[in-house]
Design a protein that fits this description.
The structure holds 2 protein chains of 2 kinds. Chain A is built from 10 helices and 11 strands. Helices cover 38% and strands 25% of the residues of chain A. By secondary structure, chain A is an alpha/beta fold. Chain B is an alpha/beta fold. Classes of the chains: A alpha/beta, B alpha/beta.
Chain lengths: 252, 214
């Protein structure tokens, strides 16, 4: 039986982890590779690096981070942030990323989704969405780190993403993000039931039952979380034990 | 064949479709000397051939034909030299794939089919993530692995249906059971990605090396 995936996400700025894991045994807690190895040891099912670097110069540092991670960690790695065209994607995949996550660039140029999935295979193209509720059961798609409202209807957008060949959707609720009050269940459910590709729930995890709800009620295939793991509130193993106790299939 | 020195030489097929770093690093992590090759003649001193499929099968078959690697793979397996196929490198060994209605290498009888696309259900396609494999094998190839327990990382929309059931090494459940690995003599090929499957994946690679030396 396919396991539900638990995916920690690390924000990386100029090659250093921002708000990283506070594991005591790390030699260099700011090093993304060290953090990736720590999460691999804990049993994370995949890992996401989000490059929040602004300049192109600093982005080259990310390639080195990805190369080193892929050389030392034998787990799936997704890299997102600032990938604008096929060449950016190619370089990142060659550096060792298994998947790339497109957000703003996919909205500005939806053709990029089609071209990238045709060229590199749909399994490695993730489209990330920042969604914000505009009325009951209606969400709008935002870009540029949540600053710009595109006016795009979320459900129309996720169907287009699937039609264009993306392999997966990483869905962040801007309303729930940072609240620790739980994922936006209705948002996840509506998206997951609108498409045949897997949906990763993101934004709002504060407690372990939030993870369970995103899966059982929100119908997500995977749950992404940052702070509850980084700050040691729960370990990946604890999260999995809990989900297992709720009869959710996990890899232990 | 195998050298007295411990390090086995593995030629990893690179037809320019994407990242092979993880595959090479994973084999190196279990003690092999793995290196990328682009032409058939570069495999001369290799103890084993590794075929990690990448991208789409249509392009894969095209590239293999352009380089003559298609014939190399056929000869290699027919001569029963050690071979390990991964993902598309498993699917391409069969006669036909529904992906782009493509002719495969036809080394084994059978075809590659798409999982039924199922919106509104929990059976998402691609089949993406960690799933267990069942096996009856008792050889050193599966030493240290537990049937139905240990999980491996999958990411694929198509699955192999071999005609000869006796080829099946691994079976996995996704909606229905499907063949997630075969073995025929010294040829092993799997649907999942051992190089992305942490300790258990490396265990399988390590075991494969032992089957070459023993």
């Amino acid at each position: 039986m396919l396991s539900i995936r638990i995916i920690p996400c690390l924000d990386v700025h100029a090659g250093r982890v921002v708000k990283g894991v506070r594991f005591v045994d790390l030699i260099d807690a700011g090093d993304p590779v060290e953090q990736a190895k720590a999460y691999e040891k804990q049993g994370a099912d995949e890992l996401v690096f989000l490059d929040i670097t602004a300049s192109n110069e600093e982005r080259k540092i990310m390639l080195d981070v990805v190369e080193r991670t892929a050389s030392e960690c034998f787990m799936p790695l997704t890299v997102g942030g600032g990938l604008r065209n096929l060449e950016d994607i190619r370089i990142m995949l060659n550096a060792g990323a298994d998947k790339v996550s497109l957000n703003t660039s996919a909205v500005l140029d939806p053709e990029l989704i089609s071209a990238a999935s045709e060229k590199f295979g749909n399994q490695c193209i993730v489209v990330a969405i920042d969604a914000k509720k505009v009325s009951d059961n209606k969400w709008s798609v935002f870009t540029h780190g949540g600053r710009n409202d595109t006016g795009k209807d979320l459900i129309d957008w996720v169907k287009e993403i699937e039609r264009r060949g993306a392999g997966e959707i990483l869905l962040t609720s801007m309303d729930a993000d940072g609240t620790k009050d739980g994922y936006d269940i209705e948002l996840n459910k509506q998206v997951s039931e609108s498409v045949g590709i897997p949906v990763i729930a993101s934004g709002g995890a504060g407690k372990l039952d939030h993870l369970a709800d995103a899966i059982t009620k929100g119908k997500a295939s995977a749950v992404l979380a940052a702070s509850i793991f980084h700050f040691g509130t729960y370990s990946i193993a604890e999260a999995k034990e809990y989900l297992k106790s709720q009869n959710i299939p996990v890899r232990l | 064949m195998s050298q007295p020195s411990k390090s086995l030489k593995l030629a990893v097929i690179d037809y320019g479709m994407g990242n092979l770093r993880s595959v090479v690093k994973a084999w190196q992590a279990v003690g092999a000397e793995a290196y990328l090759i682009q032409k058939p003649e570069e495999t001369q001193s290799a103890d084993a051939l590794i075929f990690p499929g990448q991208g789409a099968i249509v392009d894969t078959m095209k590239r293999l034909a352009q380089t003559g690697l298609d014939q190399l793979i056929k000869d290699w397996i027919q001569q029963d030299r050690p071979f390990f196929g991964i993902c598309l490198g498993f699917q391409a060994l069969f006669e036909f794939s529904e992906e782009g209605n493509t002719q495969g290498l036809g080394i084994f009888e059978g075809s590659v089919k798409r999982f039924p696309q199922a919106s509104n259900t929990q059976l998402k396609v691609p089949h993406m993530g960690w799933n267990s494999v069942r096996f009856e094998d008792k050889s050193n190839l599966t030493q240290g692995l537990q049937s139905g327990q240990d999980q491996f990382y999958f990411v694929h929309s198509y699955y192999v249906e071999p005609k000869n059931q006796a080829l099946q090494l691994f079976e996995t459940e996704y909606g229905a059971p499907f063949c997630s690995g075969i073995r025929s003599g010294n040829c092993v090929a799997v649907q999942f990605h051992p190089e992305k499957s942490q300790v258990k994946g490396l265990q399988l690679y390590s075991n494969f090396l032992k089957t070459i030396t023993s």
